[in-house]
Amino acid sequence: MNDDTFVPRSRGARAESTVLGVVVAVPEPWAQLLTDWRAKCGDPQAGLVPPHVTLLPPTEVPGAQRQAVTDHLAAVARQHPPFDMHLSGTGTFSPVSEVVFVAVARGIGSCELLANDVRTGPLARPLAYPYHPHVTVAHDVSADMLDLAYSALADLSAEFRVDHFTEFEQAESGAWVVAREYPLCGPARG
C-alpha cells in the first residue's frame, strides 16, 4: 500500500481519537475530471477521496491533541506563501505499488516544504516511502485499468494557484470530509 493512500481505515481507533489527513485539494474543473477518471477505472476510492496532493497521510490523532493540531497547522500556513501548481502527465509507482498518478510538474518544492513543516510537532511521523507529491488517479484496480488511466491522462495539463491547504477528517463511513482550510499567508520567497 502507498503510504499516503487515503483508504477507509477500520474505525477500531479509540473513540477519543480521530484520523486526519492534510492535503492540497485539486480545484474544479480538474477535481471532477480526475474523480470521473478514477471512477471509470473502477477505483473503489473514487467517491470517498477528493483529488489531492497529500501533505500528511492519514494519521490518528488523540482527541486531547486536536487544538494543538489546529494551532500547529495555522502556524505552518502563516509561514508559507501561496504558490502556483502545474499538474502534467502521468506516472506510476509500479512495481513498488500499483498506482497511477498525475504528476506535479510545478510546485514540487513548495509541497515538500509544506509537507515537512506539517509533519512536525503534534503531527510528527515517519513515512514508509520518500515524499513524492502527486495526485492518485488509479489504485486497487486491474492492470488494464491502470494502463487506461496512464495513457488517457498522459496529456493532462492543469494549472492553478494554491492559496490554502485542507485538513480532512475521516468519517465513520470511510469518506474524507473537510475539517478546516488554512490560508497560506507567509511572505513571498525571493
What do you see in this structure?
This protein starts with 16 loop residues before the first strand and ends in a 7-residue tail after the last strand. With 190 residues, it is α+β, with helices and mostly antiparallel strands. The chain has helices at residues 30-40, 66-79, 108-118, 143-152; strands spanning 17-25, 52-62, 83-92, 99-106, 134-139, 157-162, 164-170, 176-183. Helix content is 24%, strand content 34%. It has a four-stranded antiparallel beta sheet with strand order 2-1-7-8, with helices on one face. It is built from four helices and eight strands. Residues 7-12 have low confidence and may be disordered.
